Structures are given as C-alpha cells and as structure tokens.
C-alpha cells in the first residue's frame, strides 16, 4: 500500500465523521452550518479534548497499520 498525503488526508476526513458519530453529533458531508459552534469545536479536535484523544488514537492505528504493510516504514 502506497500511503501518501492524499490517502492520509482522506483517512483523517473519514476519521472526522467516525468521531462525530461516536460523540452523537450529526455531521453531514457538505454543508454543516446548522451545527452549534460547541459541537463544531468538539469535532475540530481541540487539543486535550475528548475528540483530540480519539484522533491521536486513530492516527497511531493508521501509522502502525502502514508500518506493518510497508516493512516498518510509514
């Protein structure tokens, strides 16, 4: 698997929707102007916040998976 910047960006985008779902926040693809700024901040991944830990966890899982698939290289 060749994972470059585009694949990583897509992974992070997908993770954003997964985490929003885990937090019970309805996040739509496209327009989301109707969500509260508080929910947007939670989805945005404030460092040290609930979602920040989830994003770090998912990024580590992504890196570990790619290292296994790429002989120890990211």
UniProtKB/TrEMBL annotation:
Record flagged with keyword DNA-binding: yes
Keywords carried by this UniProt record: DNA-binding, Sporulation
InterPro entries documented for this protein: SASP_alpha/beta-type, SASP_alpha/beta-type_CS, SASP_DNA-binding, SASP_sf_alpha/beta
Record carries keyword DNA-binding: yes
Domain of life the protein comes from: Bacteria
Gene Ontology molecular function: double-stranded DNA binding
Coiled-coil ranges per UniProt: none
Gene3D superfamilies: Small, acid-soluble spore protein, alpha/beta type-like (6.10.10.80)
A family per Pfam: SASP
GO terms classed as biological process: DNA topological change; sporulation resulting in formation of a cellular spore
Role this protein plays: SASP are bound to spore DNA. They are double-stranded DNA-binding proteins that cause DNA to change to an a-like conformation. They protect the DNA backbone from chemical and enzymatic cleavage and are thus involved in dormant spore's high resistance to UV light.
Entry similarity comment: Belongs to the alpha/beta-type SASP family.
Name of the protein this chain belongs to: Small, acid-soluble spore protein, alpha/beta type
Source organism per UniProt: Dehalobacter restrictus
